[in-house]
Design a protein that fits this description.
Number of strands: 13
Strand order of the largest sheet: 1-2-3-4-5-6-7
Low-confidence stretches: 226-239
Oligomer: single chain
Shape: elongated
Order of helices and strands: EEEEHHEEEEEEHEEE
Helix content: 25-40%
Strand content: 25-35%
């Protein structure tokens, strides 16, 4: 279990696990299990669907005898589609997960998405078949429009199998001015996955880990014989 994850991107849960917020998802990190699952806010749409279904059902019961037959058929078809989709979406948002890394099973599992409730297995990778992990960044190269870099950066944590197949674990898009925060969040998840799987973690070219002083935000060095000042591990763009 990784214990030195950066505190400014990690939240401690009551059950002892840690949470890292990503893009419309979150990483829940425990001693023997890491889950990439939907963010809490994704329950809103399924709940709205269930409320609409309840309203339609109440309307059909209350006004049914006075409604034309064709309208009843349309409302019934809407309920047939809306109710199961909303229920599956709610279950997926509450208990489902897109990616599960399990130490006890010794494998990483990619599960089905929205309609699959994040339960059915789509890809299973034993730890022994993992070659390495790597963090990729998009949008920092001036090659898209008039040699100007994008205003957005997307950091991706990728699992690379020994066969060469690449499987995305999580994505974190951020504005260009907040790219350090995007890297911090991606790196925190990457460190946790690397510690659990035993795979190495590769950073993008031009990035390196440095120690930053908590008070000044500047890289620090430890003089010989001097007690170190409070600091945390993070990274910075090399110049």
């Amino acid at each position: 279990m990784v214990t030195d994850l950066p505190g400014h991107v990690v939240e401690q849960r009551r059950d002892g696990r840690k949470t890292v917020l990503l893009h419309r998802s979150m990483a829940v990190i425990g001693d023997d299990r890491i889950e990439i699952k939907s963010a809490r806010g994704t329950v809103i749409l399924p709940l709205i669907g269930l409320l609409v279904s309840f309203a339609i059902g109440w309307f059909m019961v209350d006004r049914g005898p006075a409604l034309p037959f064709w309208l009843l058929v349309i409302l019934l078809l809407v309920l047939i589609i809306l109710v199961p989709v909303s229920v599956m979406g709610l279950v997926g948002a509450l208990v489902g997960a897109d990616v599960v890394i399990d130490r006890r099973k010794g494998s990483a599992t990619w599960q089905q998405g929205y309609l699959g409730m994040g339960i059915g297995t789509r890809e299973l990778v034993p730890f022994a078949k993992i070659d390495h992990l790597e963090i990729c960044i998009e949008g920092d190269q001036p090659d898209r429009w008039h040699d100007l870099p994008d205003d957005l950066r997307q950091f991706s944590l990728i699992l690379v199998k020994k066969s060469g197949k690449r499987l995305p674990i999580c994505n974190v898009p951020v504005p260009a001015y907040g790219q350090e925060d995007g890297m911090d969040r991606t790196l925190a998840v990457g460190q946790a996955v690397a510690a659990m799987t035993g795979a190495r973690l590769d950073l993008p070219a031009g990035w390196e880990l440095v120690e930053i002083d908590l008070e000044t935000g500047q890289p620090v060095t430890k003089p010989a014989g001097e007690r170190p000042r409070p600091r945390r591990k993070r990274h910075d763009r090399s110049r």
